[in-house]
Amino acid sequence: MTKIDPSSCSHSTSSHGETPSNEPTLTIEALERLLTRFVDLSHKLDLSLPKIEYDKDWTSKCIVDASPNENGLIEWKPTIRQADNIFSHLESALDVKFHPDVLNFYGYYWSDGIVVSHDLGEMSLIQIWNTEDEEMLKQNLLGHAFAKKKNKLPLTLFIGCTLDDEVIAIDNSTGQIVLEKAGFSAHKVIANSMSEFLNHLTPTLKPYNG
Q1: How confident is the model at residue 183, as a pLDDT?
Q2: Helices 26-46 and 100-107 meet at what angle, rounded to 10?
Q3: CA 158, CA 91: separation in Å to the nearest integer?
Q4: Which of 19, 129, 147, 161 is most buried, by CB atoms within 10 Å?
């Protein structure tokens, strides 16, 4: 098994909205296991690390070999980053503390998004590829949160989507993982926590098109 070592970086505590500590949380451990399964699947089926289309203008610390193969693909792997609370400015702008699970989900790795299988069907999970990707994500999350506030809806923070474009999000108050239509309240709880959700996912090697 290709172990993605989670021990060399600091992470969030279980206290809502606090910045990272030295102890891995259940969310970090579940994410680490999911991404390890993803890399292992690539080794098993493709006999290599995951591959992505080469783009000289879209670099990342995830890239292992920047020389594209005959199909224009390069190898990459999820890479631990040194990140505290990457959303502190968003929290200030919104005057709210984000649930620590969303901080850990987005702040622990540099990684491309992945496509996963769930009991409800295929899903795409967002991750952060580079600093430009991070800034785009922040702007999208800010717009999402402002829309929730404007419509007087409970704050959720998206982490992915389903094949039929339903939003997968974390309820910022409860930490539950929910499904919702854009612009509406969540209509279904699919997991009681981020770790429970991640532990029930099966990675695939289908291209991520987030």
Answers
A1: 86
A2: 30
A3: 15
A4: 129
